[in-house]
Structures are given as structure tokens and as C-alpha cells.
Design a protein that fits this description.
It is built from twelve helices and nine strands. The protein is of the alpha/beta class and about 300 residues long. Helix 1 crosses helix 9, helix 2 packs across helix 9 and helix 7 packs across helix 11.
Length: about 300
Amino acid sequence: MVCKACKNKPVIRLTNNNKGLCKSCFIKYFEQKTKKTISKYKLVDKKDHIGVACSGGKDSTAVLYLIHKIFGKRPDIKITAIAVDEGIKGYRPEHLKYLKKFCKELKVNLKIVSFKEEFGKSLDQIIKKGMYPCSICGVLRRSLLNRYSLKLKCTKLVTGHNLDDEAQSILMNQLKNNVKVSARLGPLTGVVKDNKFVPRIKPFYLLTEKEVKAYSFLMGYKEDLGECPYADIAFRNDVRSMLNEFENKHEGTKHSVVLSFLEVLPLLKNKYRKGPSINYCSRCKEPCSKESCKVCDLVKELKLKV
């Protein structure tokens, strides 16, 4: 097999079209596909202040680099990296160390917020026997990212979610009968606009995890710092394994899941856009679907500070 574009030796084979690409052609393909996704789904507007949710992992590092490369020289666009330190011993400190160095090289401002400072305990201290760390972490992380995006006056919040992540979320919601939650998915998340919620955008929406990992490696700016020690406990991990098994047997499965979902997504958004108006938490006044939000429920249950 040779590179489809220039006949050089390929470094990767794209599973969606069985095309091999060399290093330079793959980097060009990856960056063009990111730009096309941003343009097609109108993810960035003039005068946006783009917050980039960063963990120091491969996806968020790559997306921060490309957002900076595409928009960094535009005078009307501002970029700020936002990281959440959950307090996971032996994992998060190394990632944040790498992220600080990376942001300094890009000359991008970095804001770090922590569970310890905001809630009085780290994730390691919060977790109790029988609890699912990812459920707690996800709720608290999303809350802090939104809260500090608002404080920093960001108009968009970029996440490094890729096609694999989206395929997993789609199946997870189907398996849990959470169709209403699926309506919030897509390259531009959310159903109804609200001043207290910063819209999230996913420039890597149509790029696979394999492609993101390859891009990070070939660009030479991401070292392997390992995965979260709590990842294996998550329900998502089971869905990931199932999808990977299907992908190995039936190549293109992940693309099919996401592309077919995009066909029905406008119908879902339209259906739930016409639903009940947004509620506001009786305690913190943040948007939520019930009388109190998940964050306040967790704070009360786990006796965290607010």
C-alpha cells in the first residue's frame, strides 16, 4: 500500500475509506477535516472568546494546538485554556505539568480550578465504597468548566471529544433510554440557549480516536502519560470495548453510528426544543431539569462545601 495522495509510504490507514496516508498528507487531512467541521457546523463566530477544556491528554492537547493554529492570529478571537484538577494522585499532577509547559509554549493563558478548592475535597477523598467515580467526576467537572467559562466571559467552550467518544455517548443513551439526553449531543451541544450555559463545540467530532492519537504522535507534542486509574470502572468503558469489538469485525461501525445519528439529530433537537421551559436549581440557580441540579444533590449527599 502507498499513500493515496502522493505515493509515499503510508503511516496510517483510514478505516472510513480504506485509504493510506503518509505523515505529511495525514497531517494535512487531519487539519483540513477539523477546519471543515468547524466551518460546516458553524462552531466559531466572529468575536468569540474560545475557552478550551484541557486535561493534558492527547485529545485536548491536540484540539488546543489546532484552535490556536486556526484562530490564534485573529484579533477578534480570544483563546483561554481551562483545566480542572480533580485531585487524582499519580495521574492529574503529571498531566497538568505537561499542560502548563504546552500553554507557555503556545502563549495561551491557562486557568486551573480544583475540586479541593471548590468543594473542599479531592476526587480521591470524595470516593466512597460502592460509588462510581466517573459519575461524580463528570458532574462536578462539567459544572466547574461551565462556571469558570462564564466567569472568564467565554462565548464557546471547546472539548476534545472525538468520533469514538460520540459513538459511545449515543449508545450509552440508547442503552439507558436517555433519548432526551442524546438531543444535547452533536458538534454543537445543547438544545435551548441559556445565558447561564456556555455552548460546547467539538472540532474533532468526525475524527476517530486512532486519528487523534496518530496526529498527536506525529506532531511530537504529546507524551504518553497513561489513562485515568478510574476509567476501567466506568459504564463507558464497557460500551467502548463493545464498540471496538464491532469495529474490529465490521470496519466503519463507529462512523455509521455517528453519521446515522446526525441524520436524526435535527428531529431530536426540534422535539425537545418545544418541551417544557428550562428550570433553575432552587439552591444555586443554575439551569437544570429538576428542582435541584445534580451538583447540589451531590454536594448535599457527600457533604461537600460550596
